[in-house]
């Protein structure tokens, strides 16, 4: 691993630490391990929101697969299951109710992430102050928080997307039987999985952005004064 580099600031002659990107990833990973249970709760909230998004989208993909078989029996089964289908409809789209439920769940998730990260910043005042006193740049502190959020977001988003898709498949099997699995549109399902996972990663980064900026702009002296 490359050793840390130093460079001078403009005017005051103090030397600031510039760590390699790989070292930043290592520090972020160790920080998550130290705060494992708090990180697990944040990741779980993201996972639940993403799994709901994945469940809705994959469920609609399963319904579209049944419609593509052009069997009146399957169409009737979908209508009886609550899908709003007309006589000429060839696709099932996300209903307004589903859309608002998904949006609300994602918003609640983001608020939870922001709250958890602000608490994490408060708990790490002295740690942040120590890093800054040792010469860490603002962008280094910002990078640490973003890397931690990216790791949590990736894990929660991937697991959530997979869990939501699995439950959607089981739900389709229970409601429509084996034809639901026989007519699976795999390209659409993979697209739904990718969309859910990407949304989860973006939400994780968006939720940590403000707390990370607060931590990065913190004055070292003020941070060191905080009593733990």
From TrEMBL:
User: Does the record's keyword annotation contain Membrane?
Assistant: yes
The chain positions of domain ABC3 transporter permease C-terminal read: 102-214
Task: List the GO cellular component terms.
Answer: plasma membrane
Molecular function terms, GO-annotated: transmembrane transporter activity
One Pfam family cited in the UniProt record for this chain: FtsX
Q: Which UniProt keywords apply?
A: Cell membrane, Membrane, Transmembrane, Transmembrane helix
Membrane topology category: Multi-pass membrane protein
Q: Where exactly are the transmembrane stretches of this chain?
A: 40-59, 100-121, 142-169, 189-215
- Report the subcellular localization: Cell membrane
Presence of keyword DNA damage: no
Protein family membership: Belongs to the ABC-4 integral membrane protein family.
What's the protein here called?
ABC3 transporter permease C-terminal domain-containing protein
Q: Which organism is it from?
A: Desulfococcus multivorans DSM 2059
